[in-house]
């Protein structure tokens, strides 16, 4: 059996060992065994922390063909591809069977006529880092690395940065030498070589620059991040088993074998050049498609998946195992829940200019989650429209920064006319490049989307603008985004917490609107606002709030028959007094509020108290709404 | 055997004898085994001879063997090479054979005698039962003679009396089907024979298996067989080239997602949507070389994308003197087509897959982007190109399909032929389940409660929508000049905001396969109908269809109907009664079918429904449009305790229902969908005698209601609605006959809807004229009374040529015992103005004459 670290440094060795061993015994099912082996290793205590992560470690520090992990979102799914699962080398003296699994390139010549060749199928996913990850996130992760595994990461890559650089150059040089004769013979390749060199140049520049900084994507290659201005590596993940179980926009932690072989890009380029001469049909795969589906491995590494788990939440502060399996953690958090909630409430009240009711609703909003769907109706969503936001001193932006501190993933979308008319919100299929061009609404589950409507001014929305506003409306009402496939639309369900900050009632629909009542006079507003800043308390305090929000969302919830009865009675009574006062819609909302309120207190079933409290805050909110009726023309 | 058995000669034979060529091509052989002569170690990769100069550079390349695998099957022009066992028979009376690039580089594979030289890997072949036939094509178990014989027998004998395919229209179903087709070919002169694989399967399963497994070998054999048969029978017919067999509908019809390595080199049929087509690619089939010295010319076939350039002129023995002459070389057409999975075939949450298809010769330009097609072809996988200087190979294959047959699935729709051709296949079991369900006495209630279970109550509305989903029977009166009658039921929902109208619409939209959802606010007339745009590439005018056309045979859900601009709404007039859309713009004048049912939702103008006003006044829609809705429902909040309690219970359980119950419901939705599809496809109820009588009575009754009060309470449109509803109800029962119970239910539902929407709030009577003229008869009567009173008042005032408006209003108010609103007064003035009695200018009323 391989030693402890071999499976991280040389996972292919492990796989090949198993493959070789299986040759005598064809029915051994070595493939399943190999996957099992890695799964077992990763289960060991802290083993997964010793695997370097593509998210944190720059690509050039990682050893090719080593085991790495990558926390990502499936942005696009390419077509399945057939590859040589088993092949025979061509050299007759050493005719051996080799395994092609978990590799992009075959070694030594391949005997295509061999009868032992086995064709197998695998699927490629285009993965990007989870969009909208907030800065504190990376900070915490790097801390945890410094604590536990920094010492191991460096040796595992086993390259001192400067030497690493040279080795890359050597590779490049060799590559260049390779292409030299080709260049002379076939003038067409000339056009392609500059891009390649450009790519290399980028690499070098990066290395001489800040080694610790994240990989910046080269400008000429669109890495297709959902949100503008995102950074980080994107990756082509090759999936060998069970790819039907993954869905678009799933968030995964992938453990796999990193493949950055420069031969990959070289092959692609040359193939392109020579085949265009030989075979006009080959040109059909357009340059764009070529670029998207086989980008240089130095920019978009390949990752051969050994094991992946979907992330139930995206909070590094929580244990990665499901909550039920971690009762110690759960009970300790639950016991603190009430006190943390009070703390959070005070803090948010402060942020919301002293409005405690709005702060209460904001908490409910932050822990809301679509927990199920009934035919077309998503249940559990709680879109909050915070109206009456002051427009002075860029309040909304400050407010967003606070939210950013609390949730793992968030995105600020200023709904200015320009943004609405120009931004690409809905992902669209590009048939020329054969990929799904991402849009800002392609977000992971439970991402907080902050819509700043105070930015909207009067003016004309063009076609794109109307479409974007419709898309936002659909997202809020049905929690789905209709991706544009040119000839048809395709519905993708999503689970995004939308918070709308506006002056009057928002033009977008919402589940719940609350008008902000600042306790601060307009005169002192400026001053007060400038006093709002990042949470003054220690980061451990902040972490508590973060854990609180994530845990509250993950709790189970039920309602007893007794409570059901009592809720029904209540509803009937309320209707009796004044049928106009409460509609089915209102009951829907009250049930959600009651649910979220219970969860925010750490209660996993509805109690009489929570129900009354939910009714109470709803009544408060409604009475406030009365005062602010007819603020603008968006009332139904 | 009728075909010349081969003594494959020359070069080709030599190569095939090469032991490195694949001698075994078992049914599951991986693609790599099929490529021959792949010698990746060959150093000299010779580019295609673009000019003689480059050619000179490669002096003594052993070209015949230096061919490494081309990444796609190349095309061998002269398949008719006499040496091949699969040549297309003796050329028939000079009719040239046409190459079939779609079949790829077939076959110089010789037949092998199993007895003497059993290919080592093909044990399976040796054990074939018909081992009596010794000669099979190398690597397969296909014996050319037997295969040909079988196919000829199939053509001569196959009869399919139950055929209902459109392709067989006009053929005598009791005669051999394909012989009639051959006759057609002899008349029309289009040498293509489409063969339904399902027919072959039912005729000879073994032949079918061979066809699926070895299409490359079997199809040429079929060609041969059919040509022999054809020219025997029609010796005088002249064809452009020999008949080609195009099988389609291979039973392996699957979606793209289920293609796997086992399908390589087999005949498959997949469905999908064309997303991109390439330009036409001329592909060289035969290169023409001419000697620069002695002008001796020679032709060389292209073999797997490479041209073996002759190094020495055979005439003058000069080396490297031959130059390629492009315009004397032979080319064939080729096109790359990309298809994508149809949205229906896809599992939720995944992106669609795409596949490359190559179309050859006359299949080029047969399909356009956006077409839904079934493609039959051979699935290919070829390794990525070997880099000659590197021993490393990308270990990935490229896959594509060589198309043999296209079948557009939406073709019928475009031509407006009899459709309902949703070729939805129901398994026996499913049909059984559906029939059992239909036999239940309460099927109507069951189905309506399965509809949008998350929406509470509104039973009648759900029943209405259920009937809409089924639709009436389509009737054609084009002979008598009225065209076809509308079969679709249109429904309008209006009511207070927040009564889950939109949710109901969303549900319907998700339920029906061809549904469209638009919002009145966001759609323009163009978006609903169709628009013409110029394709940026081809500068061609293209008709882009909008929501109404797209939902032909489906349901178009329009939310916020009241917010729609008048302009937009006006296009609906034609659609909702004539079921067509006329377009006349930018040089395109046409009439498109839009046989869509409209399900619309509208909010009252004053945000809350005003029970004191009529429907028209509440939603402010033109009555011309309203009268086109069969059913208009009000979704109001009923206010009573029992209802509230049930509602609350429903909602609470909605939020906290267990997983299993949800599963159950999901099943319901699938069953419901199938049930509707089945009924729509197979059930066409007709009116029975009693039902007709019942309908007549119902109509007469409806007319009677109003006649007592001097009002018309029903119009022929209402009768038509009743018929449609009754038919739809019969469909729900899977009954081919409309019976009295159907009429009863139609009457009840219609009455319920009328009761809600056409009740005159002033009198409490149902008054259809509210919907047909926009004003109730009472209101009209009242208007007349006021006008008369006003006239009297003016006359009483004597000779005053002009009066103050305000003064007059007050006088009238003082005189009348009922309240006179300003609107009423204005209307009275207008009525009098119409009589030329007076004119109103600003604030003054002047008498005329």
From TrEMBL, chain A:
Q: Which domain of life is it from?
A: Eukaryota
The signal peptide, as residue positions, is none
Q: Which UniProt keywords apply?
A: Nucleus
The places in or outside the cell where this protein is found are:
Nucleus
User: Which GO biological process categories is it annotated with?
Assistant: DNA-templated DNA replication
Which intervals carry biased composition (Acidic residues)? 169-178
Q: What is this protein called?
A: Mini-chromosome maintenance complex-binding protein
Q: What organism, scientifically named, is this protein from? A: Lates calcarifer
By which gene is this protein encoded? MCMBP
UniProtKB/TrEMBL annotation, chain B:
The molecular function terms in GO held by this entry are: ATP binding; ATP hydrolysis activity; single-stranded DNA binding; single-stranded DNA helicase activity
Composition bias type Polar residues, residue spans: 60-72
Any one GO CC term of this protein is:
MCM complex
What CDD domains does the record tag this protein with? MCM4
Q: Which reaction does it catalyse?
A: ATP + H2O = ADP + phosphate + H(+)
One Pfam family per UniProt: MCM_OB
Keyword ATP-binding in the entry? The reply is yes
Q: Mind telling me which Gene3D superfamilies this protein's record contains?
A: 2.20.28.10, mini-chromosome maintenance (MCM) complex, chain A, domain 1 (3.30.1640.10), Nucleic acid-binding proteins (2.40.50.140), P-loop containing nucleotide triphosphate hydrolases (3.40.50.300)
Q: Which UniProt keywords apply?
A: ATP-binding, Cell cycle, DNA replication, DNA-binding, Helicase, Hydrolase, Nucleotide-binding, Nucleus
- Main EC class of this protein? hydrolase
Q: In UniProt terms, what function does this protein have?
A: Acts as component of the MCM2-7 complex (MCM complex) which is the replicative helicase essential for 'once per cell cycle' DNA replication initiation and elongation in eukaryotic cells. The active ATPase sites in the MCM2-7 ring are formed through the interaction surfaces of two neighboring subunits such that a critical structure of a conserved arginine finger motif is provided in trans relative to the ATP-binding site of the Walker A box of the adjacent subunit. The six ATPase active sites, however, are likely to contribute differentially to the complex helicase activity. Acts as a component of the MCM2-7 complex (MCM complex) which is the replicative helicase essential for 'once per cell cycle' DNA replication initiation and elongation in eukaryotic cells. Core component of CDC45-MCM-GINS (CMG) helicase, the molecular machine that unwinds template DNA during replication, and around which the replisome is built.
What is the name attached to this protein's record? DNA replication licensing factor MCM4
* Native source organism of the sequence: Lates calcarifer
């Amino acid at each position: 059996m391989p030693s402890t670290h071999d499976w991280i440094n040389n996972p292919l060795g492990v796989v090949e060992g198993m493959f070789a061993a299986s040759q005598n015994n064809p029915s051994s099912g070595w493939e399943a065994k190999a996957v099992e082996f890695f799964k077992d290793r990763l289960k060991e205590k802290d083993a997964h922390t010793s695997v370097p992560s593509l998210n944190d470690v720059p690509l050039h520090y990682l050893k090719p063909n080593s085991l790495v992990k990558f926390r990502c979102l499936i942005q696009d799914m390419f077509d399945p591809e057939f590859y040589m699962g088993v092949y025979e080398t061509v050299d007759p003296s050493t005719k051996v069977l080799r395994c092609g699994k978990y590799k992009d390139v075959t070694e030594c010549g391949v005997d295509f006529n061999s009868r032992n060749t086995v064709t197998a199928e695998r699927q490629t996913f285009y993965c990007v880092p989870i969009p909208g990850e907030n800065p504190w996130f990376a900070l915490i992760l790097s801390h945890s690395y410094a604590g536990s595994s920094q010492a191991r990461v460096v040796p595992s890559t086993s390259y001192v940065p400067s030497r690493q650089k040279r080795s890359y150059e050597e590779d490049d040089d060799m590559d260049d030498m390779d292409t030299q004769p080709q260049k002379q013979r076939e003038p067409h390749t000339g056009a392609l070589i500059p891009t390649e060199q450009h790519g290399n140049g980028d690499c070098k520049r990066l290395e001489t620059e800040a080694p610790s900084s994240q990989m910046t994507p080269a400008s000429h290659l669109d890495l297709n991040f959902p949100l503008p201005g995102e950074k980080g590596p994107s990756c082509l993940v090759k999936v060998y088993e069970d790819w039907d179980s993954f869905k678009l926009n799933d968030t995964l932690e992938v453990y796999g074998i990193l493949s950055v072989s420069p031969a990959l890009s070289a092959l692609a380029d040359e193939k392109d050049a020579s085949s265009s001469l030989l075979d006009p049909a080959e040109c059909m795969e357009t340059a764009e498609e070529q670029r998207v589906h086989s980008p240089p491995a130095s920019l978009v590494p390949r990752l051969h998946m050994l094991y992946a788990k979907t992330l139930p939440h995206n909070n590094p502060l929580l244990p990665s195992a499901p909550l039920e399996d971690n009762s110690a953690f759960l009970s300790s958090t639950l016991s603190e829940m009430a006190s943390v909630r009070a703390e959070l409430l005070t803090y948010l009240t402060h942020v919301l200019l002293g409005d405690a009711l709005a702060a209460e609703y904001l908490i409910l909003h932050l822990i809301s989650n679509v927990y199920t769907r009934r035919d077309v109706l998503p249940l559990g969503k709680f879109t909050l429209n915070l109206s009456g936001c002051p427009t002075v001193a860029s309040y909304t932006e400050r407010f967003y920064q606070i939210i950013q501190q609390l949730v793992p993933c968030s995105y600020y979308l200023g709904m200015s006319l320009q943004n609405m008319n120009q931004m690409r919100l809905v992902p669209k299929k590009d048939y020329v490049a054969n990929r799904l061009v991402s849009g800002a609404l392609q977000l992971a589950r439970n991402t907080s989307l902050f819509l700043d409507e105070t930015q909207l001014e009067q003016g004309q929305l063009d076609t794109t603008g109307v479409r974007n506003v419709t898309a936002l409306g659909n997202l809020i009402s049905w929690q789905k985004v209709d991706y544009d496939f040119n000839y048809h639309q395709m519905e993708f369900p999503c689970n995004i917490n939308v918070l709308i900050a506006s002056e009057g009632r928002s033009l977008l629909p919402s589940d719940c609107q609350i008008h902000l009542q600042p306790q601060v006079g307009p005169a002192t507003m400026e001053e007060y606002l400038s006093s709002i800043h990042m949470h003054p308390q220690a980061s451990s305090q902040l972490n508590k709030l973060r854990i609180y929000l994530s845990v509250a969302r993950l709790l189970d919830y039920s309602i007893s028959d007794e409570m059901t009865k009592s809720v029904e009675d209540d509803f009937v009574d309320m209707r009796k007094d004044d049928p106009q006062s409460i509609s089915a819609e209102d009951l829907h909302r009250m049930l959600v509020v009651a649910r979220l309120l219970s969860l925010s207190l750490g209660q996993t079933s509805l109690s009489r108290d929570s129900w009354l409290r939910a009714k109470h805050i709803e009544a408060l909110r409604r009475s406030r709404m009365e005062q602010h009726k007819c603020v603008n023309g968006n009332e139904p | 055997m009728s075909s010349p058995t081969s003594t494959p000669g020359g070069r080709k034979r030599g190569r095939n004898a090469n032991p490195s060529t694949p001698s075994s091509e078992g049914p599951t052989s991986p693609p790599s085994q099929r490529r021959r002569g792949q010698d990746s170690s060959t150093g000299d990769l010779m580019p295609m001879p673009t000019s003689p100069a480059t050619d000179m550079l490669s002096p003594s390349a052993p070209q015949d063997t230096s061919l490494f695998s081309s990444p796609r099957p190349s095309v061998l022009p002269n398949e008719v090479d006499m040496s091949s066992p699969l040549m297309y028979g003796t050329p028939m009376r000079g009719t040239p054979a046409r190459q079939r690039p779609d079949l790829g580089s077939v076959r110089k594979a010789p037949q092998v005698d199993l007895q003497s030289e059993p290919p080592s890997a093909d044990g399976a072949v040796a054990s074939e039962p018909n081992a009596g036939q010794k000669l099979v094509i190398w690597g397969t178990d296909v014996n050319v003679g037997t295969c040909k014989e079988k196919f000829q027998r199939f053509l001569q004998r196959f009869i399919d009396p139950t055929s209902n395919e459109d392709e067989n229209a006009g053929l005598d179903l009791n005669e051999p089907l394909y012989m009639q087709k051959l006759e057609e070919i002899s008349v029309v002169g289009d040498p293509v024979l489409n063969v339904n694989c399902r027919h072959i399967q039912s005729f000879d399963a073994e032949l079918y298996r061979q066809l699926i497994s070895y299409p490359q070998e079997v199809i040429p054999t079929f060609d041969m067989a059919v040509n022999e048969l054809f020219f025997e029978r029609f010796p005088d017919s002249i064809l452009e080239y020999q008949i080609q067999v195009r099988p389609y509908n291979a039973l392996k019809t699957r979606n793209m997602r289920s293609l796997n390595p086992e399908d390589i080199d087999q005949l498959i049929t997949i469905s999908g949507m064309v997303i991109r087509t390439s330009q036409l690619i001329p592909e060289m089939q035969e290169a023409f070389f001419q000697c620069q010295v002695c002008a001796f010319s020679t032709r060389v076939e292209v073999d797997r994308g490479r041209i073996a350039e002759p190094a020495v002129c055979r005439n003058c023995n000069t080396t490297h003197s031959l130059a390629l002459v492009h315009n004397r070389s032979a080319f064939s057409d080729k096109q790359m087509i990309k298809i994508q999975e149809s949205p229906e075939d896809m599992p939720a949450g995944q992106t669609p897959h795409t596949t490359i298809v190559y179309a050859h010769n006359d299949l080029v330009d047969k399909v356009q982007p956006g077409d839904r097609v079934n493609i039959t072809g051979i699935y290919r996988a070829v390794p990525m190109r070997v880099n000659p200087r590197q021993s490393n190979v990308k270990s990935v294959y490229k896959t594509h399909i060589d198309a043999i047959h296209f079948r557009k699935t939406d073709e019928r729709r475009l031509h407006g032929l009899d459709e309902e051709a949703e070729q939805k296949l129901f398994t026996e079991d499913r049909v059984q389940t559906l029939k059992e369900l239909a036999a239940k006495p309460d099927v109507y209630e069951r189905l309506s409660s399965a509809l949008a279970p998350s929406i509470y109550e509104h039973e009648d509305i759900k029943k209405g929508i259920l009937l809409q989903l089924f639709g009436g029977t389509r009737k054609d009166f084009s002979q008598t000049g009225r065209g076809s009658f509308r079969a679709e039921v249109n429904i309008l929902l209006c009511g207070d905001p927040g009564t889950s109208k939109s949710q109901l619409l969303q549900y319907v939209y998700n339920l029906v396969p061809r549904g469209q959802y638009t919002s009145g606010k966001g759609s323009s007339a163009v978006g609903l109908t169709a628009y013409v745009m110029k394709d940026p590439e081809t500068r061609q005018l293209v008709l882009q269809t909008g929501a109404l056309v797209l939902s032909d045979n489906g349901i178009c859900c329009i939310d916020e109907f009241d917010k729609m601009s008048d302009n937009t709404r006006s296009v609906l007039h034609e659609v909702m009664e004539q079921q067509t859309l006329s377009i006349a713009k930018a040089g395109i004048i046409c009439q498109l079918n839009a046989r869509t049912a409209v399900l619309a939702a509208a909010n009252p103008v004053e945000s809350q429904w005003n029970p004191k006003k009529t429907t028209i006044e509440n939603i402010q829609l033109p009555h011309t449009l309203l009268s086109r809705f069969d059913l208009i429902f009000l979704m109001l909040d009923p206010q009573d305790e029992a209802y509230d309690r049930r509602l609350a219970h429903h909602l609470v359980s909605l939020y906290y229902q267990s997983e299993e119950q949800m599963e159950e419901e999901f099943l319901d939705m699938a069953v419901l969908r199938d049930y509707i599809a089945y009924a729509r496809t197979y059930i066409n109820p007709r009116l029975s005698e009693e039902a007709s009588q019942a309908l007549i009575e119902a109509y007469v009754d409806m007319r009677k209601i109003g006649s007592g009060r001097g009002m018309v309470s029903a119009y022929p449109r209402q009768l038509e609605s009743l018929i449609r509803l009754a038919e739809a109800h019969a469909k729900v029962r899977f009954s081919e006959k409309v019976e009295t119970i159907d009429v009863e239910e139609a009457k009840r539902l219609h009455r319920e809807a009328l009761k809600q929407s056409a009740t005159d709030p002033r009198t409490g009577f149902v008054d259809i004229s509210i919907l047909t003229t926009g004003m109730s008869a009472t209101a009209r009567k009242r208007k007349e009374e006021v006008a008369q009173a006003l006239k009297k008042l003016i006359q009483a005032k004597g000779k005053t040529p002009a009066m103050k408006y305000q003064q007059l209003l007050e006088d009238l108010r003082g005189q009348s015992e009922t309240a006179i609103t300003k609107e009423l007064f204005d209307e009275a003035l207008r009525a009098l103005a119409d009589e030329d009695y007076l004119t109103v200018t600003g604030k003054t009323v002047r008498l005329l004459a």
